[in-house]
Write a structure and sequence with these properties.
Keywords: ATP-binding, Helicase, Hydrolase, Nucleotide-binding. Belongs to the DEAD box helicase family. The chain is of the alpha/beta class and 474 residues long. The protein has 17 helices and 17 strands. It has 3 domains: 208 residues, Rossmann fold; 168 residues, 3-Layer(aba) Sandwich (Rossmann fold), CATH 3.40.50; 49 residues, no CATH class. The strands form 3 sheets. Strands 10-11-9-12-13-8-14-15 form an 8-stranded parallel beta sheet, sandwiched between helices. Strands 3-4-2-5-6-1-7 form a 7-stranded parallel beta sheet, with helices on both faces. A two-stranded antiparallel sheet has the order 16-17. Strand 16 and strand 17 form a beta hairpin. Helix 2 packs parallel to helix 3 and helix 14 packs across helix 15. The chain binds adenosine monophosphate.
């Protein structure tokens, strides 16, 4: 199917051709005809599937009858409102709108917080057909009477799940109450939590449903790896992976702003070109950092989930989860930063001993069997190495060229006898530790001379106890 077959006007076709869009993505092919009919739409779309064009192109098609070059503000009332959870996503959508309207006299403006309101107010006063906004700043403009929403015919709630996660529900309900009842509402969400369904029931009229990918699915174009590693060595493994895998560009996700700052400092010390982005950074700095990442000047971007929301970098080859996210939906969003619009990508997650719960939640949500693996050279202290006899077991991931087996100073055995150790297939709790073993762990007697001796699994002992002493134990 072509864009022409979807019934898009030549001005829009010309603009998207210049962007290199040759044919509609599945979400576009499914959503565009439905939006053109004027019906409400509930769309489950993964990040990076082309969902912005899926709502924006038919909106423009429906707005083109109002296109005019008049200088009078009255000739340009706000007819389409696009709500986004974050400034970055709003900015990204506005960039797309600018490109799609290159050959149409339809005006737009983007309004978000953290920057001076005056230029936004000025643009709104001059009149615009399309407003892309974050909820809080939009309400500021409503209060200042710099925007009137009584002519809005089309509303888009983009990444609605994230808007709810970020606590925007009251703002959204308030905005919805300001809009004409007769309008078209389009709701896009990567995941459909019950609250989203409730919002749809309350504010949409028998919406059409479009679901091109399985709900909560991860992008199949993305190769996923879960590497087990001690928390304290994560940053070393990350540096190592960036260098040995020759990652040209990577976004690294951390759970907290502080985590982002610390990791950025550490990676800088390792000589990498890296910057941080999170909610405490000034908006100007955030946009500058994003611009230098998008242009390829910056190699590593360390970010929180919120800051990287909606970030669209074409051909981003790698995403790293420095920590697994607490909300499994964030995993889907995070790894959706790579493998966009049909490209392939790699998502690597560094999993510490205490992150088994998060991995289980991700596996359950995405219906995938995600197998954690140790990395040779960064073997986690909590994952036992199987005996060399475990021939059938798969080899661990080689973080670097495998080191030749060296002789141990103590007993003449290879220092890493388990180069073929079975990677542990469970999630790092104490039960999981035992689960990866070829044989039960040998037991050692410990205790001070004279005290009662007790037997514990050698695996549970600090390393010094595990070295075979000439006396066969203490
Ligand atoms: P989105 O999911 O809207 O963030 O889009 C992801 C990326 O795909 C953006 O860089 C879009 O410009 C690009 N894109 C959207 N539609 C198409 C298309 N039909 N063909 C090629 N690229 C597209």
């Amino acid at each position: 199917m072509s864009f022409a077959e979807l019934g898009l006007t030549p001005e829009i076709q010309r603009a998207i051709e210049e962007l290199g869009y040759t044919q509609p993505t599945p979400i576009q092919a499914a959503a565009i005809p439905k939006v053109l009919t004027g019906r409400d739409l509930l769309a489950a779309a993964q990040t990076g599937t082309g969902k912005t064009a899926a709502f924006m192109l038919p909106i423009l098609e429906r707005l083109k009858k109002f296109a005019n070059s008049s200088a009078s503000p009255a000739m340009h009332p706000v007819r389409a409102l696009i709500l986004s959870p974050t400034r970055e996503l709003a900015d990204q959508i506005a960039v797309n709108v600018a490109a799609y309207t290159k050959y149409l006299p339809i005006k737009h403006v983007v309004v978000f917080g953290g920057v001076n309101m005056d230029p936004q107010t000025e643009a709104l006063r001059r009149g615009v057909e399309i407003v892309v906004a974050t909820p809080g700043r939009l309400l500021d403009h409503v209060q200042q009477k710099s925007i009137h929403l009584n002519k809005v015919e089309m509303l888009v709630l983009d990444e609605a799940d994230r808007m709810l996660d970020m606590g925007f529900i009251n703002d959204i309900r308030k905005i919805l109450s300001l809009l004409p009842k007769h309008r078209q509402t389009l709701l896009f969400s990567a995941t459909f939590a019950p609250e989203i369904k409730k919002l749809a029931e309350d504010f949409m009229r028998t919406p059409e449903l479009v679901q091109v990918a399985r709900q909560n699915a991860t992008n199949e174009q993305v190769e996923q790896h879960i590497y087990q590693v001690d928390a304290g060595r994560k940053r070393h493994l990350l540096s190592h992976l960036i260098k040995t895998r020759q990652m040209s560009q990577v976004i690294v996700f951390c759970r907290t702003k502080q985590g982002v700052d610390t990791l950025t400092r550490d990676l800088k010390r390792d000589g990498l070109s890296v910057e941080a982005i999170h909610g405490d950074k000034a908006q100007g700095v955030r946009l500058e950092t994003l611009a230098s990442f998008k242009s390829g000047d910056l190699r590593v971007l360390v970010a929180t989930d919120v800051a990287a929301r909606g970030l669209d970098v074409s051909d981003l080859p790698y995403v790293v989860n420095f920590e697994l996210p607490n909300a499994p939906e964030d995993y889907v969003h995070r790894i959706g930063r790579t493998g966009r619009a049909g490209a392939t990508g790699v998502a690597i997650s560094l999993m510490g001993e205490d992150e088994g719960r998060q991995l289980e939640a991700i596996a359950k949500l995405t219906l995938q069997a995600l197998k954690p693996e140790p990395v040779e050279g960064f073997w986690p202290s909590w994952v036992p190495r199987a005996k060399p006899a475990a021939e059938a077991a798969p080899a661990p991931v080689q973080a670097a060229a495998p080191a030749p087996a060296r002789k141990s100073a103590t007993n003449g055995a290879p220092r890493h006898p388990s180069a073929n150790a079975a990677p542990v297939g469970t999630y790092g709790n104490s039960a999981g530790v035992a689960a990866g073993l070829a044989e039960p762990a040998p037991r050692r007697a410990i205790g001070r001379p004279g005290s009662r001796r007790r037997e514990v699994s050698a695996l549970l002992l600090p390393p010094r106890y595990k070295v075979e002493s000439p006396r066969g134990g203490r």
